[in-house]
Amino acid sequence: MSELTHVLKLTLREKRDVSLAIVFGVLAGLASVALLASSGYLISKAALTGQMTVLIVIGACLKLFGLGSAVSRYSERLFSHRATFTMLGNLRVSFFERLSPLAPELYSKYRSGDLLARIIGDVESLQNFLLRVFYPPVVLLLVFMGTILFTVYFSIYTAILLAIGYLLTAVAVPAYFAWRKRRRDWRTRESRGALSAEAAEFLYGFRDLKIHRQLAGKEQQISDLIDFYNEEQRNEGKEEVYSQSMNGFIALVISLAILASGAYFTAAGELDGLFLAMLVMISLGVFENMAPMAAFPSHFEESRKAAVRLDSIVDEMPRVKGSSDLPEGGLSISSRNLSYVFPDEQRPALDDVSIDLPRGSKTAIVGPSGSGKSTLLAVLMDILPARSGQVLINSANSEKFSQESIWQSLNVVLQENHFFQGTLRSNLKIADSKANDDQLAAALERVELGRFSLEMDVEEKGQNFSGGEKQRLAIARAILKKGEVWMLDEPVSSVDSATGQLIYERLFNDYPEQTFIIVSHDLTGLEKMDQIIVLENGKLMEKGSYDELMRSKGYFYGLKEIEQQVMA
């Protein structure tokens, strides 16, 4: 139950609606019992006496109890569902507040389909917590207590039998099936997450699977996951049916026992026969309210596992970030003994890297594939947290500044840039919502895309653009951002050399006082850079200007020699 503590706290925020739902639920339950009890009494009274006044009064009570049951049931549904929807809203807000500080690293731990299944499916599963887990036991306890106290006046033995029935159907049977469910460890939620992950990967990689003739194998894998998921659902459904059958059987046995004991005590003269039918009908009426307890074990385990799966995403302590804003004006960035290791990896992506990026400088970060260039850029821009060492902004630890303040000062172009379905205008305005059409068109002109209309449709992930066009659109978006530091990760790797060099020259000429940090595998054109940082296997091999590195004939000189041999 400790796994559901957070969900319980969020539920109890809506004290008024939860309390009203319980009150009306108890009234509805007692009214339905009173309705059947009055019916039983009316039958006996009509058979044993001809007093019309009494019969009319009892008939009026029947109508009253029927109306009260309907109104109470409606009110109970209204307040319980309103509390549930509010709780779900609070849960989503709470979950995303805890999730957002960890978001940059999530995709290194979880597959996108599995994340989607947890964020949507598991949150939706918790809608049953109030309606099927927290609420029914409380209402049933109060209904049974009221019923038992009423029957004590007529027959202590009937009250004892009802108490035994309550303990069996509301406690023993649900506890047994909850134990069975946990022991068998059905993995419905996990199988749903695996199916979502594989389905998402199938859609993303459909073209490659088709080209390499592996489509059938992937389809069979997904088909097997679907079968496994369906089997898990069937097993859970069977358990619920077994639980319902067990509860129904116990309720029938208790009702028959009440009938038998009532008949015995009536024959013995210890119970007025006028009340026998009423007591039996009370038993039938009160056990009608027991139906939700049959589904209690399933919903309890489902809610518990959903809470565990959600908490497993956000169980890490979020980074403690400051709230200060960056100072206005140019920025200098440095790193001191910076290291980073991806989760579940042994090899460090960065290992004791110390660099200085002065205000207004132009720096190139180069090295072979997998050397840690993109990781260094991600740590510098505060997307990934440093595992050790520190990043300094204007000689102050970056941890004292808010992420929003840091990102506001950056013009970023990554290797993969997301484009949303919509128009070219809407995608460019992500960088500056106040930019007018002339400013948007000017940004496109600077990246040689002036022929594009702002009304042009953009498909999901920008799939109707080429790789080079998407890179240039990302640069246009960065131009509109108006930040002070440019962080560019292979920004023109898919653009022809002439256009790429032209874009670089325009950026350097348009923003001569701003800081540029460029990750590149291309070693041409680096003569214009103020400094070059060379990485290999996450380590800083050397740094300096182009001329200094070439004169030292070190690691960078060797890379240039290899490039020239390949190009020859």
Total DSSP helices: 21
Largest sheet: 6 strands, mixed
Unreliable stretches, pLDDT < 50, 5 or more residues? none
Which strand-content bin applies to the residues?
Answer: 5-15%
Q: What is the CATH homologous superfamily assignment of the largest domain?
A: ABC transporter type 1, transmembrane domain
Major beta sheet, strand line-up: 6-9-10-3-11-12
**CATH class division of the largest domain:** Mainly Alpha
Q: How many strands? A: 12
CATH-scheme architecture of the largest domain: Up-down Bundle
What helical percentage do the residues reach? 55-70%
- Outline, from the CA principal axes? elongated
- Average pLDDT works out at 82
Number of domains: 2
Computed over alpha carbons, the radius of gyration is 35 Å
Distance between the termini: 70 Å
Structural class: alpha/beta
CATH topology of the largest domain: ABC transporter transmembrane region fold
Subcellular location: Cell membrane
Keywords: ATP-binding, Membrane, Nucleotide-binding, Transmembrane, Transmembrane helix
Organism: Planomicrobium okeanokoites (Planococcus okeanokoites)
Domain ABC transmembrane type-1: 20-302
Q: Can you walk me through this structure?
A:
This is Thiol reductant ABC exporter subunit CydC. It is a multi-pass membrane protein. The chain has 568 residues and is an alpha/beta fold. The protein contains 21 helices and twelve strands. Helix 5 packs across helix 13 (296-313) and helix 6 (128-152) packs antiparallel against helix 7 (156-184). The radius of gyration is 35 Å and the shape is elongated. The mean pLDDT is 82.
